């Protein structure tokens, strides 16, 4: 017998939106969307998956925040020009009534909104207008990560010890779709906050969402969504472990970072997730290099590459070649390092791919140059390292100005290389540029690099430029 309500038609691909993306990968386009949002004071967590859902027609009309961003990016166009359905057809009373009927027929509500992103207008969504405003105000008015981490509270997972204790009496049950979404959103929030503010103010607050994610995982498979949702929860928990591990890593807590990366690797093995396994090994290689275990860095990078070959992402393999190069440089093996760098450049030049992991949006020409600078620096090639660090800082400032932490990191690397190359005035000038960014960035890694540069410049303290840097650096250390 025929159903009283017609089945939902399959979504139509959004050809117009796909054409606007052009030659950019979904990840690169998502980064451009986030950049445009910041230009107008909006806050969206756009990523490659969201872009894919729009292009597939799964999102017939964006929420109001995305609408403002898209119209800012493409002035003179309407939502219809961008391939979206008119809002009245999607959000109107008639459309909602029809959607309710379809929901009754299919057993699920009809809603074109992606539940992982804040909805600016609907009060029944997990992310309220008030919460979105709190997050936006935190980013627009705060110069420190201490205030910015307040935005993590909007993702629906507990943040600190008080919140965790408040939930202790509760028995965790199998996760539902909302909680899986919240885990994924927590990963994005941490990455965005780290890009802007660095790790030091985030690590302790980010540990509680991680505990919650694994408590949900331990409670069993999800009720809603079946195996697909369970796989998402495993992947989300593993990626969250890597993100928290990176915060520990960047803030100098190497033992904590190693533990979190091992947790992510175990999760990947349990879930049979090669992408997560490759990511965990990738970060383990980076940590091993920084912790003075270069041979382990080489082995971990090679293990990551073996797992990543199934992903068909040249850019990911390029990054892993750089991780391996860093290990060879730490071993003093110039030939091994050079060969790995050649591989990294060749793979990078093959361009982005649809299969690039969404977390890799940070990896572009600036990061390639920055990591190569670190290799030459480890080999004692200061002038060569300085050239690459200069390029990294310049490209980052031009192409990804929102990645404040990375700009500060590349510039700190430049200051160190210039100081070691015997160019104290230029090193001091670069150091002053880093100091100017430290109101926004809290990173023990960068602070340590700058302290080393200050020590290297002490013999040149009579030079005016060097004196200015040393005085400002000392004043900040005292403050």
UniProtKB/TrEMBL annotation:
Residues 99-122 have a biased composition (Basic and acidic residues). Residues 93-133 are annotated as: Disordered. Gene3D superfamilies: Tetratricopeptide repeat domain. It comes from the Bacteria. This is C1 regulatory protein.
């Amino acid at each position: 017998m025929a159903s009283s309500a017609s089945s939902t038609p399959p979504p139509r691909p959004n050809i117009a939106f796909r054409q606007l993306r052009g030659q950019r990968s979904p990840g690169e386009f998502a980064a451009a969307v986030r950049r445009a949002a910041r230009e107008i004071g909006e806050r969206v967590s756009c990523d490659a998956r969201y872009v894919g859902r729009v292009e597939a027609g799964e999102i017939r009309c964006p929420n109001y925040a995305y609408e403002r961003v898209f119209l800012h990016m493409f002035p003179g166009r309407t939502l219809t020009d961008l391939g979206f359905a008119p809002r009245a057809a999607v959000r109107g009373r008639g459309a909602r009534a029809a959607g309710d009927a379809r929901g009754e027929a299919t057993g699920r509500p009809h809603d074109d909104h992606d539940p992982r992103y804040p909805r600016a207008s609907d009060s029944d969504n997990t992310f309220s207008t008030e919460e979105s405003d709190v997050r936006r105000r935190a980013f627009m008015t705060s110069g420190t990560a201490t205030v910015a981490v307040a935005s993590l509270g909007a993702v629906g997972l507990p943040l600190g010890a008080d919140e965790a204790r408040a939930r202790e009496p509760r028995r965790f049950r199998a996760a539902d779709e909302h909680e899986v979404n919240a885990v994924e959103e927590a990963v994005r929030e941490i990455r965005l906050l780290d890009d802007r503010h660095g790790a030091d103010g985030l690590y302790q607050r980010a540990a509680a969402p991680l505990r919650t994610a694994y408590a949900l995982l331990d409670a069993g498979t999800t009720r809603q969504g079946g195996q697909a949702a369970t796989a998402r929860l495993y992947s989300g928990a593993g990626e969250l472990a890597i993100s928290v591990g990176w915060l520990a890593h960047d803030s100098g807590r190497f033992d904590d970072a190693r533990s979190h990366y091992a947790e992510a690797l175990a999760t990947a093995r349990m879930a049979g997730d090669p992408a997560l396994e490759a990511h965990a090994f990738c970060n383990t290689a980076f940590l091993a290099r920084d912790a003075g275990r270069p041979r382990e860095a080489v082995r971990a990078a090679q293990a990551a590459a073996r797992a990543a070959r199934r992903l068909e992402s040249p850019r990911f393999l390029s990054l892993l070649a750089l991780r391996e190069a860093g290990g060879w440089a730490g071993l003093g093996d110039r030939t091994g390092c050079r060969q790995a760098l050649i591989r990294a450049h060749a793979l990078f030049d093959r361009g982005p791919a649809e299969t690039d992991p969404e977390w890799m949006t940070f990896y572009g020409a600036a990061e390639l140059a920055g990591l190569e600078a670190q290799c030459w620096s480890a080999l004692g090639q200061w002038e060569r390292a300085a050239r690459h660090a200069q390029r990294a800082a310049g490209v980052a400032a031009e192409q990804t100005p929102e990645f404040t932490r990375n700009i500060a990191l590349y510039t700190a690397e430049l200051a160190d290389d210039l100081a070691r190359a015997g160019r104290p005035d230029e090193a001091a000038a670069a150091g002053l540029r880093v100091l100017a960014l430290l109101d926004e960035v809290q990173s023990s890694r960068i602070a340590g690099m700058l302290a080393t540069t200050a020590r290297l410049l002490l013999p040149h303290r009579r030079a005016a430029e060097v004196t200015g840097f040393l005085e400002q650096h000392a004043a900040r250390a005292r403050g």
